[in-house]
Amino acid sequence: MAQSTRLVDLVHSRIDEFINTRESIVTTISPDLTVLVDFSRQFLSGGKRFRAQFAHLGWQSVPATAPTSSDEVPAGLAGLVSAASALEVFHAAALVHDDIIDNSDTRRGAPSAHRRFESLHGANGWAGSPADFGRASAILLGDLLLGWSDELLDEGLDAAADRVSARRARTEFNLMRTEVTAGQYLDILEERAWLTQPEAELLDRAVRVIVFKSAKYSVQAPLVIGAALAGADDDQLDILRAFGLPLGIAYQLRDDLLGVFGDASVTGKPSGDDLREGKRTVLIALARERLDTASRGTVDRLLGRPDLTPEQISELQQIIVDSGAVDRVETLIQENVTQALAALDGSLVEQSVLVALTDFAGTVTRRVF
């Protein structure tokens, strides 16, 4: 735990330092751009840093970088911190764009980026539509963060043990970007195309969204990028992939439950937000399989309405619970965690790292509602 806390502190510091250096560049262009830096700093100031921690665990899983009892800073740690920081900045960029796509008002209990820009427009009495300005500005903020994540990654790759490790880490990062973008498109596609798809395919399509929008990007890719940076061989990377994918699926299944039933004070988003956004998740697919015609019609009529009342949200929640879908998702979470942990059996990963990975499997999938 101490190693993980130390890494998180180092990532916080590196992101702060990086933004400070970029502030002088941006504000030299125009003082009007200070808001981009301020909003970036706000969006990067919180969060659990799961992706950075998974990158650290992947890095530590390679024997040469395994944690010791010594206070000596391991060789290559600075490069790992930069790469882990890149993952966090990329994640912030994805959240900014995701909130635009989903028309989300909040993120982590505070206004989302496009709502912040919208408020800025209104407070200054500028011309045109506040909403249009908010969306356009947030898109640009997300793009800026994407570029900054690449700069941080390059910084980390420059400190890699060798060029082969650096190229492999870069390849994995590039693959992650492609897959999460594809997964994001599939997510918005399913919200609109479900009506014309065969009923028997809806569950598989929902699982496909989980795999590419979240599971690979949230858990598997950070693990593999960290390990690749440390010089992992193909067998070591395959073990982490076999662990990371089912754990990532379990993590997103838990997040989907929170999106419907979560406490706003814990999640930072309104309870039932996924219902308003019309997310066609595994939870919804499993519910529809067991609903009668009337209940299924109610779900299809209400799901995706941004003006859902608290009473309608409660009605949808109860229908989903009564269908047995919540219990089925809980079972899927446990099955995927079991599969992930089984991938570590007999591996050469150092014992303390195995313990940390096992602990993390519980942390990211724990029931909190």
TrEMBL record:
Domain of life, source organism: Bacteria
Molecular-function GO terms, alphabetical: metal ion binding; prenyltransferase activity
Pfam families in the cross-refs: polyprenyl_synt
InterPro entries the record matches: Isoprenoid_synthase_dom_sf (IPR008949), Polyprenyl_synt (IPR000092), Polyprenyl_synt_CS (IPR033749)
Alphabetic keyword roster: Magnesium, Metal-binding, Transferase
Coiled coil: none
Requisite cofactors: Mg(2+)
Any GO BP annotation: isoprenoid biosynthetic process
Family that this chain belongs to: Belongs to the FPP/GGPP synthase family.
The protein's name: Geranylgeranyl pyrophosphate synthase
Organism: Cryobacterium arcticum
Lineage: Bacteria, Bacillati, Actinomycetota, Actinomycetes, Micrococcales
